[in-house]
Structures are given as structure tokens and as C-alpha cells.
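Customer escalation, tier 2.

The customer says the design service returned an amino acid string that "doesn't look like it belongs to this structure." They asked us to rerun it and document both sides in this ticket. The original C-alpha cells are below, unchanged.
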């Protein structure tokens, strides 16, 4: 891959993201003016709900009523969608899972729906979070009080997409690494929790 090359409309022959995906901006804020907290209704994913692990944090989700969600059906999420922040914390994203199918997303996000026969969702998420690609993506953001991306800009973003069998290899290798990271983090958390009790035990024995 060569994601560090600067892109210009005339000098980069890489295919564009729009060749493999459909990009849709979230509904305008006025369509989501009845958001509420609580267990009833359909969740609406917003930028604060996207984690560094490319997942959706479900603890603080706000919701809309089912009738309102039905009117916003064109903004529903499906498993395999990639949800990208387009205003504020640019570049943060999440890979949507089956349990989040049918949820909605806020106006501050872009939904990227890949053609899964050509690009794997896991590969797309990994590609868009690869540091050189992130730098290139953020360099395209519109400047202003709040830097932003839009669907046209993302559709025209140049990408490097290997054959699907190679994408499978990449995703499998990264999943193995992620599992090892999770194990190491768990071990670290246990050691951090153990440290005070070890100190107390040893000081009592003095």
C-alpha cells in the first residue's frame, strides 16, 4: 500500500472510496430534535459513543421513538457498515455489528456501506484507521471553526484495496494481534489492582 502519497485530483490514479462503498451523511439535527435518554426507542449513535477499539459504547446512547425512527429508515445502520465521525473528533470510527442493525446515527457522522463482495468491512475499518491514511484523510478536511468531512469528499478519497483473499489475510492477522493486546491489557489491569494489596500485606508483616 502507498497511503502516504499526497492526493490531488490530477496526480493520483488510485481508485476512489466511492468505487467500493456508498457514503451517506447523517440526518440533519432538526430531524433528531426529540432525542431522549432511557431504555425505550431506537438508539442513535453519536461521536461520543465511538471507542478507540472501533466499537460502539452503548452506555450513554440516546434514542428516538419508534415512529420517528421509521421515518428515518434511510439512515438505519447495518452489520458491516463503518461509521465515521465527520465533525469534531475527525477520524474516529466504529465497525457496526449485527446487534446494532436497525439503529440510527447522528448528523455528526458519515455511514460508509461497503460492497462486501469487493471490500471487507474489517479491512476497510483497519485501512481508515491506519495512521498514514488517517493523516491523508484529515488533510482533506474542510477548515473552519469545526473541521469537517463530507460525503462527497469521502467518496472521492483515494484508497488502496488489495484482492479480497489478501484482505482476509490482513483482517485475520490484525484480529490475532488485537486478541494478544486484550490479554496483555487484562494482565496489566490485574497487576495494577494487585499492587495496593501487596503493599498492605507486606507492610503489615514488617
Amino acid at each position: 500500500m502507498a497511503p502516504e502519497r499526497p492526493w490531488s485530483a490530477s496526480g493520483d490514479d488510485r481508485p476512489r472510496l466511492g468505487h467500493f462503498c456508498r457514503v451517506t451523511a447523517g440526518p440533519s439535527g432538526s430531524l433528531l430534535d426529540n432525542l431522549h435518554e432511557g431504555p425505550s426507542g431506537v438508539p442513535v449513535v453519536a461521536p461520543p459513543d465511538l471507542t478507540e477499539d472501533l466499537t460502539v459504547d452503548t452506555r450513554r446512547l440516546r434514542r428516538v421513538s419508534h415512529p420517528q425512527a421509521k421515518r428515518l429508515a434511510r439512515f438505519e445502520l447495518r452489520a458491516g457498515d463503518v461509521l465515521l465521525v465527520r465533525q469534531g473528533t475527525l477520524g474516529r470510527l466504529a465497525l457496526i455489528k449485527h446487534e446494532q442493525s436497525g439503529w440510527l446515527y447522528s448528523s455528526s457522522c458519515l455511514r460508509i456501506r461497503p460492497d462486501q463482495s469487493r471490500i471487507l468491512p474489517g479491512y476497510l475499518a483497519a485501512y481508515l484507521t491506519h495512521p498514514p491514511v488517517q493523516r491523508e484523510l484529515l488533510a482533506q478536511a474542510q477548515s473552519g471553526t469545526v473541521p469537517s468531512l463530507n460525503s462527497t469528499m469521502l467518496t472521492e478519497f483515494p484508497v488502496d484495496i488489495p484482492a479480497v483473499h489478501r484482505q482476509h489475510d490482513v483482517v485475520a492477522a490484525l484480529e490475532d494481534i488485537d486478541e494478544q493486546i486484550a490479554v496483555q491489557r487484562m494482565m496489566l489491569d490485574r497487576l495494577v489492582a494487585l499492587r495496593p494489596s501487596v503493599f498492605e500485606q507486606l507492610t503489615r508483616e514488617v
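Tier 2 assessment: The sequence is consistent with the input. Residues 1-10 have pLDDT under 50 and may be disordered. The longest strand covers residues 109-114. Sent an explanation to the customer and offered a walkthrough call.
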